[in-house]
Amino acid sequence: MGRTIAIIGGTGKEGRGIALRWANAGHEVIVGSRDGQRAAEKAAELSSLGHGTIRGSDNASAVRAAEVALLSVPYGAHGDTLRGLRQELQDRVLIDITVPLAPPKVRTVHLPKGRAAALEAQEVLGPGAKVVAALHHVSSAHLADPEHAIDCDVLACSDDPAALELALSLIGDLGLSGYDAGPLANAVALESLTPVLLHLNKRYKGRGAGLRLTGI
Ligand SMILES: NC(=O)c1ccc[n+]([C@@H]2O[C@H](COP(=O)([O-])OP(=O)(O)OC[C@H]3O[C@@H](n4cnc5c(N)ncnc54)[C@H](OP(=O)(O)O)[C@@H]3O)[C@@H](O)[C@H]2O)c1
User: Fold this and answer.
1) Atom of ligand 1 nearest to the CA of 59
2) Which residues line ligand 1 (CB under 6 A)?
3) Nearest residue CA, atom 37 of ligand 1?
4) Which of 105, 152, 170, 214 is the most core-located residue (most Cβ within 10 A)?
5) Which fold has domain 4-203?
6) Longest Cα pair distance anywhere in the chain, in angstroms?
7) Helix 13-24 vs helix 36-47: crossing angle, to nearest 10
8) Could you report the per-residue pLDDT of 11-63, keeping only the tens digit for each?
9) Domain residue spans in the chain?
């Protein structure tokens, strides 16, 4: 079933490939931005690639029009963005892909004050929003081309079983296999693994190191 999905910060690197892949899978995608004009231009550019129709609007309008939202902004903008969209995100499933990196030390694990960005998101939004943490280990380099098969599994966690099931199905529509990784508290582990992958990229000259599960 096609869903209407808003991508908050969808004008960026990670949002691009996610928007193209979901549009390709038949979802109605709304690219969100702080600037509605920038969103409209990005949406027109992505639509012209022929993977489906993608709309653009300011972040608040995008979330209001959608049933599911994906948050794709740098950690430095995470708290303010969520506080600004608190009302719009009530009764929504929010897939939070944020990794709480602390530049310039992006290859060292950084636990934020609330232990994980996704836990901070749930705290800011309250129980009315259903937060799912996912996609921290899939590089924009892999997502960008919708025809490119991605050799990476996805771990997703949430305290809301229905929201998690929906997110896992949407992760499947990105061309990835998503796995239930437990309660939202486990976002601490998921988010912490990304700096390790960034270290591996540097150490072994990789381009988008990812995860593959075995034994299940
Ligand atoms: N890149 C990856 O490979 C990757 C992989 C896994 C997870 N992630 C996570 O995905 C999220 C997005 O990553 P990205 O690489 O796509 O980031 P990005 O391209 O640097 O930024 C994404 C969007 O965030 C918005 N933004 C930037 N600064 C902002 C601010 N101060 N306040 C509000 N919005 C702001 C911008 O949209 P507007 O200016 O249009 O509002 C921008 O286009 C991050 O949390 C990252 O940790 C990234």
Assistant:
1) 41
2) 9, 11-15, 33-35, 38, 72-75, 77, 81, 97-99, 101, 136, 138-140
3) 9
4) 170
5) Rossmann fold (3.40.50)
6) 47
7) 50
8) 999 999 999 999 999 999 999 999 999 999 999 999 999 999 899 999 999 99
9) 4-203
